[in-house]
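Q: A reviewer asked whether we had any structural model of the full assembly, not just the individual parts. We don't, so I'm hoping you can provide one. Inputs are below.
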Amino acid sequence: MVKHIIPETLSEALKYLYQGDFQIIAGGTDLMVQNRSWSETPVNFTKNMLYCFDLLELKGINVIDGRVEIGAMTTLETIMNHPGVPSLLCQAIGEMASPAIRHVATLAGNIGNASPAGDSLPVLILYDAWVELRNMAGFRMILLKDLIVGPRKTAMHPEEMIVKIVIPIHNFDFESYIKVGGRKADAIAKVSFAGAVEIEDDKIADIRLTFGAVGKTVIRNETAEGAWIGMTITELKTGIWRLIDMYNQLIQPIDDQRSNKYYRKTVAINLMKDFIDRL
Amino acid sequence: MAIIKFTLNHKQVIVNGDPNRRLLDVIRNDFNLKGLKEGCGEGECGACAVLINHQIVNSCLYVLANAEGKDIVTIEGFAETKRFAVIKSAFETAGAVQCGFCTPGMIIATESLLNANPHPSEAEIKIGLSGNLCRCTGYNMIVEAVQIAMKAGEGLW
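A: Here is a predicted structure for the entire assembly that you could use as a starting point for your response.
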């Protein structure tokens, strides 16, 4: 018999996590579908459940010292409408699901679910977002790109919980996010791309390129990006074939019910090419 | 087992049972409110929509445990309001109802949208309705109905 616990405070929740094997559930918009049973029957959760959606300590958004801190149980709709949240993240959230889901779903849920097609992930990883994990003894900060280690796999320990997502604010001169899916709302991405460039004295000071749904985790390669620092946009445009060669090797998508690897790879490369053409 | 308390159509209610039940089943079976429907059962169609704290939510994806302390309104509760009367009349005028299966969800979506944004543009209306599927009307009449409701109900939202 699985246990169902609705903790009233964060410390109570952490105590349960320490004592036993629990699955944390936030808004539940993914877990309710993944564990769906017959109509009119309870959802078939196979693990002990810890319902954390209403923990007040984990709700809200703070903008402090050049970063945005988002409480784990803040809904996507609240995040999207907050003036301090970076625009690319608002855009990515705006293309996720539908209002009915955004009123309930959370960023921490999208991260914990660790789907290769998680829509917030390419943008969060582009922004070098951090995740604050807490257990009974204390907390640790981990870069999101290091937290997600594979499809549906994270580096979280069983007694840990995501309490905050921390996004450093960065003002790019160009940024773009594009999602390709079967339907405008409620669709899971076939491919997604996020790009950002910062220019200083006509030279590239920062360039970041991320790809979603085309690998086991979000594809971002800092070596490939770093090669263009100090170059001009014209040099980037004329040398684009080198970038295409590099990402052709890095991007190794799969066939699944939503799309196939040939389509995914072609579109992913074209999205990057289009982003650079438009700079 | 757990005891979950919330407000359903402005009445305080208590549900004693499995916290992992879907809110959809609780509302339809325990309270015999059949206005919300199960369409897809996975959050894609919006036929099961309810208002939770004035915002549209899919009740098929909402777990009973998360209902504690919430203010939940179904189409039956909303039907007693002036806002509903305006939306109902607008749907009739625009011909936005055919088979009617999606209609309770569409009306909940309209209320959620106008409550947050009393003067939405056409693009904003389409976003507001984007989680609700209709296989009869082709959507144009529903978008038009929201525009009629927005004008006719000026000041209500």
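A: Points you may want to mention in the reply: The first strand of chain A starts at residue 4 and ends at 5. Chain A has a mean pLDDT of 96.
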